[in-house]
């Protein structure tokens, strides 16, 4: 609800039913695009090569939003308890939790703060391990085995030992969050262990996200929903969304191009000292800036044509950018 979206005359809640909560974000985006939509290059400049540096039409996104609206009422979980509304902290992490401790007593949580982006939504849309606590990319965490340190930890040098301790901590936090949730908050546990939990979340997230020159993520989730339709909606319910073979083939090819572009971008990000969330430590900032400036210079020098040089100049992901058209 920023920029021009702040003035839209649409349903902002409170929502009385889970169906309303599912529909409203997409209705908001359709209202915005009908009033302000214009062809745009993807805001994520690292993905622009996948689109051959061509502006994308908002009409494609409106079409996918309408597809989402047609299926949204049918994707509610079968357990009605998962559709009850709750309020949940949006960024639970150690830095947002104040703890009191005194000798001879246990730690006591005295305050949890940083609630400014809190939503009140059905449980199946709020559920999940907090981003700063989850460790899904790790096989041990995925297996839910009780983590342990390597037997030869004392034989490692300091850097190796620090790395193993960090890995152990990430696994331990993930493990205890899941097991404690299973024991103390079984409804939440049931929500984020539902096999369709992630798909429902992606559909809702991408349908309500501000349009930034792309509809690919929403479309991919919709395609997955058609594949999982019987599990989502139940046996005998016809799926209102269908994609023709040519559309599916073109989407698959676009996915390959975007994946290639993203891999290159992520490699340079890591080489430049930029974290997954885009942050750089203050002491590393000048070095990171110099690295990307140098990489841009090398790219321009090695470009084979003036068109290639223009693409680097105009779409370099680490340059400043005017975002007004996306607001």
From TrEMBL:
Domain of life: Eukaryota
Bias (Basic and acidic residues) ranges: 300-318
Chain segments annotated as coiled-coil in the UniProt record: none
Annotated region (Disordered), positions in chain: 300-327
Gene Ontology cellular-component annotations: mitochondrion
The protein's name in its UniProt record: Aminoglycoside phosphotransferase domain-containing protein
Taxonomy of the source species: Eukaryota, Fungi, Dikarya, Basidiomycota, Agaricomycotina
